[in-house]
Amino acid sequence: MNSHLMMASIADFIGIAVLLVGLFALMSSHYMRAPLKSIAEYIRKAKRMQNSIPPGSFGLPLIGESMQFISSYRSSVCPDTFIAERRLRFGRIFTTHLFGKPTVISLDAEVNRFILNSDGRLFMPDYPTSLKQLWGKWAILMLEGSFHKRIHGVVATLFKSDDLKDHLLRHIEDFIQQAMESWNTNSTIYLEEEAKKISFQVTAKVLVGLDPGATTVALRTEFHKFIAGVVSVPINLPGTTFYSSLQSRARMVQMIKGIIEEREGNARHTDREQKHVVKVHLDVLGVLLEERRLMNSKEREEGGEREEVTTTEAMPLDAITDNIVSFFFPAEDSVAMLMSLAVKYVSECPRALLQLREENLNFVDKYKGEKMNSRHYLMQLPFTHCVLNETLRLGNIVKGVIRKALVDVHVKGFLIPKGWAVFPFFRGVHLDEAIYEDADQFNPWRWQEKVALSHYTPFGGGPRYCAGLDIARLEAAVFLHHLVTRYEWELGERDTLTHFPFVKLAKRLPINIIHKQNCKNQSFPTLYNPTLQAIHVMYARV
Ligand code: HEM
């Protein structure tokens, strides 16, 4: 009964809107000559629309159902109340009104895949103006069309390359070693804090080639102030969080520009005739600078003389700084969350922890003294990756993505009207009992059986799939490897998860270190790395 009332309210809303448009058309036509036929056509169209828009409710005027959505995902007890209630009343595809827009939420894996794969044709990302101000108009999330394709391609190619992953592995292990040095038996550490420290260092390395030091610390301080603005009221006045966030963003941009200037000062530039070597740094800044050089020189060639008197650039410097700034977020926050949640889940599931430890100790034995590379960590630790898959499924670090319909879109018998927002809600699919048995339980063994990967989208899909997924998996696998082979711990104070706006552990996951492994008998896989060798020797002397 309730659902019918809600459906009626949407239908009324559309009916009245279409009637008003019809009336306006009639009134504005010269001498009201518009044929009555066209009004009938409008009414027929309204009827057709009201029949095919997914059922649901719009909630209150202007704010719609945003408050219910937010309070549901702020709760650590029953975060999915909002979704569960509506799924029961309306099914897996329903209409609501979120953050100022009529929105279709989809908990249907097939529809979600369709939306992700139709990016750029039927849908495009749709972020509020305040977020555009924060990320910058050139950030990958804001880009469309061929420029998006180009930036995505350059970054994805870099992140897929074994050279980059192997180069990064040395640093990941180094940063983990340094962090772990301070964790001693009988001490309590805040795992989320430690994971964030490590992943920020990895991020600074992979994005701009920075080693830990004063600049990384300064960059991290500004990044934290910057990120606070993402969830603030967007009022750009001195004293507001939003204002301070924009100021920090500007300082991050200055630091990145400083690194660029330093690189360009040192660079030996290309000159094909003189056969100079191009030095492309193995990081995101390096490949974006190279891409910019290529695009701008092509632009100049094509532009001929006219180009010399204009300042047009195919790829301005802002395109580099906006992207670097925006990559800091997934690279620091999401990866650290993956590591922290994996530790929480295995700590609560002793059988999984035991198997994880066994696999990783065997791995140490098997590759004793061998030169390790990223493929070892990505391919030779199957159970570790089952743990990570399950953590991503259950933890839903990214709940879903928001898109806008570019045209009227028909899918599974429903209409998503042009201009409406659409929210493929991955979390709703990942926690669907019809797909995953005991969906709310941590069960890494399910990944040892045949699981339909088409339902599984923790890293999105289509043209905007996560370019950094291998980096995220590598970092998390190496972290788990070192943690379980060297430490025994127990969870400290009980911690809870909240989900809005981002997944967070309320207490930053305190863990008590019970035992630090005597590393004498443990052969670290990357012994040839001089820093690690020094640390290994140090441990061996303990
Ligand atoms: C556990 C960690 C991570 C998760 C869960 C995650 C999740 C996602 C998701 C769901 C998307 C799709 C966004 C959309 O469709 O609008 C995405 C895109 C992306 N992610 Fe990640 N990500 C993670 C780590 C990383 C890392 C480490 C990087 C690299 C620094 C990265 C870089 C990117 C990039 C470049 C895109 C493409 C955006 C676009 O083309 O519009 N991500 N990620």
TrEMBL record:
One of its GO terms (molecular function) is oxidoreductase activity, acting on paired donors, with incorporation or reduction of molecular oxygen, NAD(P)H as one donor, and incorporation of one atom of oxygen. Its cofactor is heme. It comes from the Eukaryota. Gene3D superfamilies: Cytochrome P450. Belongs to the cytochrome P450 family. PANTHER family: 3-EPI-6-DEOXOCATHASTERONE 23-MONOOXYGENASE CYP90D1, CYTOCHROME P450 26. This is Cytochrome P450. It comes from Adiantum capillus-veneris (Maidenhair fern).
